Amino acid sequence: MANSKFEYVRLFEQPDNLLRETWIVVRIDGRGFHKLSDKYKFEKPNDRRALDLMNAAAVSVMKALPDLIIAYGVSDEYSFVFHPNCDLFERRSAYVISSYQKVMSSYVHQWPIFFPEKPLELSSLPTFDGRAVQYPNERVLRDYMSWRQVDCHINNLYNTTFWMLVLKGGLSNVEAEKELSGTVSSDKNEILFSRFGINYNNEEEIYKKGSVVYRQYQLEDHQPQTLTTQAMESQATTELSKTQQEKMRKLRRKAQVVVDHVDIIKDEFWQRRPWLLSGKPGKLPAETTQA
Ligand code: ATP
Ligand code: ATP
Ligand code: MG
Ligand code: MG
């Protein structure tokens, strides 16, 4: 780099590296999607195509960034998780967060596939905000993931009941809101069942559980006692050289990226997929190899 008397301005740049050996979650959320969903007439409470589009955008990001371990999406938000051993962009916050731009461009790019009859208007382009949060250990990371999935459940039960009261029950938005104020889950289940003949348990999993995106390897047997060992192991392998990181990326690119709608709160999900918390790629399934 050429030396000039102007170069001192670099001193004004602040370091913004995220802490080493922490889990990094980049959470993006659609800006003003309430309005956007009105504008493009999303079906209420859940427009399946809009969710499929979010998922397609998330899959593109997972494929483009092999450093990503897992992502979880609900409504207009997605959380992308990097392992403590990840050294992407030297963990510089601004660069890591900028991975959400990929979601944005992918979302806009794939919009016509999911909404062929509703071209995007320049004045109402979908945009997202993004932030990076660091979590110090597996327990907190899992609690974070659980928090998002519980949020999904609570919001979906509310929204399903609300929109039933409005669309089928003939209530106005204000009346439906009033009807639901102060109710607990069992009350909403009861309203759905007794008034509309809906058993909430039979609603689609994608609505109740949200979407989990990750790389698929051979599932391990469900062995409740292994988690602690795994947890210790993954803590011990956080430092990886650049060459090791590159090798890991290559292996990860070979795995298929899948979208699941399953419980990520219970241990079983993580125990059967030890590669998620360990950050070490598992064995590729024998038959399906390339994504
Ligand atoms: P902010 O900019 O603060 O995030 P917002 O309007 O995006 O505001 P959120 O709390 O993020 O508000 O909620 C997203 C809203 O987008 C939901 O309340 C819902 O109305 C709408 N929405 C998002 N995805 C869907 C979908 N798949 N089907 C129907 N509506 C959706
Ligand atoms: P910001 O204004 O910083 O964007 P926010 O209030 O819009 O924050 P986020 O921090 O993006 O919300 O949080 C994402 C989701 O978490 C929200 O859509 C909401 O469902 C939930 N959430 C946020 N704050 C709370 C809270 N205090 N209690 C319960 N849920 C919350
Ligand atoms: Mg939003
Ligand atoms: Mg949101």
Automatic annotation (TrEMBL):
Catalyzed reactions per annotation: a 5'-end ribonucleotide-tRNA(His) + GTP + ATP + H2O = a 5'-end phospho-guanosine-ribonucleotide-tRNA(His) + AMP + 2 diphosphate + H(+)
EC number: 2.7.7.79
Cofactor note (record): Binds 2 magnesium ions per subunit.
Domain tRNAHis guanylyltransferase catalytic: 6-136
A Pfam family matched in the record: Thg1
Alphabetic keyword roster: GTP-binding, Magnesium, Metal-binding, Nucleotide-binding, Nucleotidyltransferase, Transferase, tRNA processing
Binding site for Mg(2+) 1: 29-30, 76
Residues the entry annotates as binding Mg(2+) 2: 29, 76
Cofactor: Mg(2+)
Thg1 C-terminal domain location: 140-266
GO function terms (MF aspect): GTP binding; magnesium ion binding; tRNA guanylyltransferase activity
Binding residue positions for GTP: 29-34, 75-76
GO biological process terms on file: tRNA modification
Top EC category: transferase
Family according to the record: Belongs to the tRNA(His) guanylyltransferase family.
Job of this protein: Adds a GMP to the 5'-end of tRNA(His) after transcription and RNase P cleavage.
PANTHER family: TRNA(HIS) GUANYLYLTRANSFERASE-RELATED
Protein name: tRNA(His) guanylyltransferase
Origin species: Talaromyces amestolkiae
Organism classification: Eukaryota, Fungi, Dikarya, Ascomycota, Pezizomycotina
